[in-house]
Structures are given as structure tokens and as C-alpha cells.
Design goal:
The chain is mainly α. The protein is built from 17 helices and no strands. The longest helix has 30 residues. It is globular, with a radius of gyration of 20 Å. The relative contact order is 0.18.
Length: 419
């Protein structure tokens, strides 16, 4: 048993209680529906990094200018998730899901018909990012978590796995369609098709989740004062912020980097698919790893993998070694993202889940946008991606160091976990 100084906040696992689980077959059906929605939404907001080169060429601007549209989308998503997370706690997720699906379609169609860059910023910042991604990341994750108790870590991992599914399939598809029909027709078709599917999936959220009166805040194993909770939140916020800054300095420019290295456009887009596809391995194994080793130790492990992958990418000299670095980054990114949501959910009761999970992922959205925009600016400044990727490695290093030196604030959980 580890001894923690009395002044340190304690986050520990819930003990297994004898309450009846709220999980039903419908819970797992909702998990599948959530995965479809988040995959399509991620494809919409990631269309900017994937189509960076064609858009820059068509608008006759630098990649940094187009990358700033992704920055706008991420800022919009962060702010939107804060607002929609609070609405979730009060009114449920069904109406949010319907509005999010319609906004994603409207945003992509508007972007496809844009004649000014400001229109792209409005379409991605407000409709696709602010309302669409703002609904279909943090709030939908919190909404799904309300249907689970014993497998809540796995549920959150599934909800965030849309980045992996969407990242595995959609970048190559979007780039291939753009080669044949142009980016405008591609965005229009994707917006209409994805919007219809998301609307149908939203119907599954008409049913309200079951409640478990026997589960209290203390049953979640939280024994922290408000001041200690704030400290934990700031540690997690700095960790996810710096990690995502690093991740999107890479993700936001990987396709463009591949094209500059001489790869065919579709092959360059596949680099993003490989990276985000690798996230699926760590996302779907996160629940087991968290139960086996503890949630915070798992977060540390995934953050270390993420850092090692970016450093590997900086020094990679061949396509083979480039792929290895990309896979390592994907594994780390895929594991650390749900870990933050799970730790936040453990700190606070279910009645605050929407707001609290949205707050921690707000840091992720904002720094993701900054990372994407900063990466483009550094590339235009230096005419290559060496400084961009080196900056990403520095940011990932800072994130890991903060998490490592603050590890005493968290106690590793012992399985099994029941919440």
C-alpha cells in the first residue's frame, strides 16, 4: 500500500458495491451508435487538415492560412462543448444530437460553396466545430457514460474512438474523392450523407438513461476537498493541453508533410489514417489497462508513448521509420485522451458529468487548434516541418514531466472498478 502525504488530494477506485448494474443491451447499442456519430463528426472537422494542400492551391494562399481555419474550428468546438455540456446536464442529449447533425451538414455545404476565406472560418468555426464537434465529443461522451457503471472506462474509450474509426477510413476517402471530383463537391456529398446518418443515429438518444440511486458521490471513491479537486483539474488540464498541442502540430500537417516528401496525395493522406487507426488499439484496450494498472499510471504510459513517437518522427529518415513513429504517436494519443475523461468523471458526480468532461476537453480543443495553426505558421516561416515537429516534441515532453511530477496527487486504482 502506498503512503500519500495528508495534504495531497486522493483519487482512488470505487469499491465494488452490491447495487444492480444500470448497464443493459441498450447501453451497448448506444455505444455503437455513438461510435458512428463521432467518427462522422471527426471526419467533418478533420477535412481541413486532410485537404490542406488542395485548399491552399485553390485559394492561392499558404498552408498556414488554411490551417488557421482548423484553429477556428477547434476554438469553436471547445467553446461549444462547454455550453452544450451544461445543456446536457439539464435537458439530455437528444435535441443536442439533432442540432449537431444539422449543423454539420449545413457547415460542410456552406464551406463547399465559399467564395471568401471568412466564409470557411464561419462554417468551420460555428457550424462544423462549435455546434457539430462541440456536441459530438465531450457531451456525447458524457451522455454515453450515463448508461454505464461497471464498464464506464470502456464506454468513454468507445466514445472517443470515433477519432480512430473516422481517422482510419475518412482521410483517404476524402482525398481520393477530391482527386476525382474536387474538394467542393466532396464536402457537399460528405455533408449530406454524414448528416443523414447522424440524424438517424440521434434517434437512439430519445430514451433517457437509467438512474442508480444507490450510487453516491462517495461511492465513486472521491475523497477530495474542493481545493484539491481544483488542483487535480489544473494538472489534468495542463497535461491534456500540452499533449494535444503536440499531437495536432503533427496530425494537422501530416498529409501536407507526406506530399512535400514526395508521396502521392492518397498515400500522404494514408499517413493520417495509419496514425488515427493506431488509436483504436489503445482506445479499445484502455478499459482493461486502466483496470489492470490504474488510470493515472495508464495515462503516464500513454503520454510516454506519445512523446517517444514524436521524437522518433523528428529523426526518422525513411518511410519505414516514419510509419513506426506515426504508429507510436497514434497509440499514445489514443490512450491518453479517454484517460483524462475517465479521471474527470471519477472526480465529480454523475450530475456534473456533462459540464466537467466538457471542461477538461475544452483544453484539448483549444490547444489542438493552436497546434494546427502554429504548425502551419512555423512551416511557412521555415519552409519545412523540422521546427514544427521539434516544437511538438518539446510540448509533449512538458506534458509528460508535469504528469510525472504531479503523480503523487493521484493514487493508482485497484481493479475491479464499479461506478
Amino acid at each position: 500500500m502506498k503512503l500519500i502525504p495528508s495534504h495531497m488530494p486522493v483519487v482512488e477506485s470505487a469499491r465494488v458495491h452490491s447495487f444492480a448494474s444500470i448497464e443493459t443491451p441498450y447501453s451497448w447499442w448506444l455505444a455503437l451508435v455513438t461510435l458512428v456519430i463521432t467518427s462522422l463528426s471527426f471526419g467533418a472537422v478533420t477535412s481541413i487538415p486532410v485537404l490542406l494542400k488542395p485548399l491552399a492551391h485553390d485559394w492561392n494562399v499558404g498552408v498556414g492560412t488554411i490551417a488557421s481555419v482548423h484553429l477556428t474550428a477547434m476554438f469553436g468546438a471547445g467553446l461549444g462543448s462547454l455550453l452544450l455540456g451544461r445543456l446536457l446536464d439539464r435537458h439530455g442529449f437528444f435535441c443536442i444530437a439533432v442540432v449537431g447533425a444539422l449543423s454539420t451538414t449545413a457547415g460542410l455545404v456552406l464551406a463547399a460553396n465559399a467564395t471568401h476565406l471568412i466564409t470557411l472560418h464561419l462554417a468551420y468555426g460555428i457550424l462544423i466545430g462549435g455546434v457539430g464537434q462541440g456536441a459530438f465529443f465531450s457531451p456525447i461522451t458524457a451522455a454515453l457514460a450515463q448508461w454505464f457503471d461497471r464498464n464506464q472506462a470502456l464506454a468513454i474509450a468507445i466514445a472517443t474512438s470515433g477519432q480512430g474509426i473516422g481517422g482510419l477510413c475518412l482521410p483517404t476517402l476524402l482525398r481520393w474523392a477530391t482527386e476525382g471530383w474536387g474538394w467542393r463537391l466532396t464536402l457537399t456529398g460528405y455533408g449530406i450523407g454524414a448528416g443523414l446518418i447522424m440524424l438517424l443515429c440521434a434517434l437512439a438518444f430519445r430514451k433517457a438513461p437509467s438512474s442508480s440511486p444507490s450510487i453516491s458521490h462517495e461511492a465513486n471513491g472521491v475523497r477530495t476537498t474542493p481545493a484539491q479537486k481544483r488542483r487535480c483539474v489544473w494538472v489534468l488540464g495542463m497535461g491534456i493541453g500540452l499533449s494535444n498541442l503536440a499531437a495536432f502540430m503533427v496530425i494537422g500537417h501530416l498529409t501536407a508533410y507526406g506530399e512535400e516528401q514526395g508521396f502521392a496525395p492518397v498515400s500522404a493522406a494514408m499517413l493520417v489514417s495509419v496514425m488515427l487507426g493506431a488509436t483504436l488499439v489503445s482506445r479499445f484496450s484502455f478499459g482493461y489497462a486502466a483496470n489492470r494498472w490504474g488510470r493515472y499510471p495508464t495515462l503516464l504510459l500513454m503520454s510516454a508513448l506519445h512523446l517517444f513517437g514524436i521524437v522518433w518522427l523528428v529523426v526518422a529518415q525513411s518511410y519505414f521509420f516514419l510509419i513506426i513513429g506515426i504508429i507510436l504517436i497514434g497509440l499514445g494519443f489514443g490512450g491518453y485522451l479517454p484517460a483524462y475523461g475517465v479521471l474527470m468523471r471519477q472526480l465529480f458526480p454523475a450530475s456534473e458529468a456533462g459540464r466537467r468532461i466538457s471542461e477538461i476537453y475544452f483544453f484539448a480543443f483549444i490547444t489542438a487548434g493552436i497546434g494546427s495553426g502554429m504548425g502551419g505558421w512555423l512551416r511557412d516561416l521555415t519552409s519545412n516541418y523540422v521546427v514544427t515537429f521539434s516544437g511538438a516534441a518539446t510540448s509533449a515532453s512538458l506534458a509528460f514531466l508535469i504528469l510525472w511530477y504531479q503523480r503523487a496527487a493521484f493514487v493508482s486504482e485497484l481493479p475491479p472498478i464499479a461506478e
